[in-house]
Amino acid sequence: MAEIDGTGISDLFIIGGGINGCGIARDAAGRGLSVTLAEMGDLASATSSASTKLFHGGLRYLEYFELRLVHEALKEREVLLRAMPHISWPMRFVLPYHEDMRFESTTPTSRLLGLTMPWLRGQRPAWLIRLGLFLYDTLGGRKILPGTQTLSLAGTPEGAPLQERFERAYEYSDCWVQDSRLVALNARDAAARGAAILTRTKVVRAAREGALWRIETEDMETGGTATHSARLLVNAGGPWVGEILHDRIDLPSREGVRLVRGSHIVTRRLYDHDKCYFFQGTDGRIIFAIPYEGDFTLIGTTEADHPAPSQPPVCTPEEQRYLLDFANRYFRTPVTEADIVWTYSGVRPLHDEGAASNTAATRDYTLKFAAGDGAPLLNVFGGKITTYRRLAEAALEKIGTHLTVTRGPWTAGAPLAGGDFPVDGAAALVTDLRGRFPFLTEAWAWRLVRSYGTEAVLILGTAATAGELGEAFGATLTEAEVRWLMRHEFARRAEDVVWRRTKLGLRLDPAQVAALDRWMTAERRAEEAAE
Question: Taking every annotated instance into account, which residue ranges of this chain make up the domain FAD dependent oxidoreductase (predicted)?
Answer without folding.
Answer: 11-388
